[in-house]
Specification:
209 residues, alpha/beta, Rossmann fold, two-stranded antiparallel sheet, 6 helices
């Protein structure tokens, strides 16, 4: 699919298989999500620009690569996005963080916003939006619309699982935003959940219902 990258690294797929299992504990699910976030972060930032800078090593001076430009922004769609955010900040601790509070109305499946906080100079930074599931894509589309309203113009979307319906809806709304995911599943059901999926990521991560 256009603008879609499936990260099929064996370690990602192995950990994802364990997460899909309904018997995986809350603690294990949370730990695995952070571990997968490390691997996904590596892929979604693969093409970041670098500058060559002078460094004094114990053996003498040399020129070595260093990230170019302003620090990244990781934008977490609350609450489940924080599971990916935690692991990504392990790799890029200097990244700025935006939080976008959205919940899905159980009747309409439409997103309802309740919180938004982002760096003021977001237009000068690469923004990586994180949410474990891209199902209907309603929340992801709304979150990115909000970021664009604040000036963001260089955005990527990272999720654990995606459904074809969600990918199509997302690309139609934001054709300029590439999607990175660990798996493209079969479909969404009548309740808006990904099938076969792994259930509600937020509930499984926090042990709620």
């Amino acid at each position: 699919m256009q603008n879609l990258t499936v990260i099929d690294h064996p370690l990602v797929q192995h950990k994802l298989t364990i997460m899909r299992c309904k018997d995986t504990s809350t603690a294990s699910f949370r730990r695995l999500l952070e571990e997968i976030a490390h691997l996904l972060c590596y892929e979604v930032t693969r093409d970041l620009e670098v500058d060559m800078i002078e460094v004094d090593t114990p053996m003498g001076p040399t020129m070595a690569p260093s990230l170019k430009g302003k620090k990244l922004v990781f934008a977490s769609i609350l609450r489940a996005g924080n599971g990916l955010l935690s692991g990504m900040l392990d790799l890029v601790p200097s990244a700025r963080v935006a939080h976008i509070g959205l919940y899905r109305d159980p009747e309409t499946l439409q997103p309802v916003e309740y919180y938004f906080k982002a760096p003021t100079d977001i237009e000068d930074r690469l923004v990586i939006v994180v949410d474990p599931m891209l199902a209907t894509a309603n929340s992801a589309v709304a979150a990115i619309e909000k970021l664009k309203e604040r000036g963001a113009n260089n955005i990527r979307f990272l999720c654990l699982l995606a459904a074809p319906e969600g990918v199509e809806r997302f690309i139609a709304a934001h054709p300029d935003v590439p999607i990175f995911t660990a798996a493209l599943d079969e479909r969404i059901d009548e309740h808006g959940y990904i099938v076969p999926g792994l259930g509600d990521a937020g509930d499984r991560m926090y042990g709620t219902r």
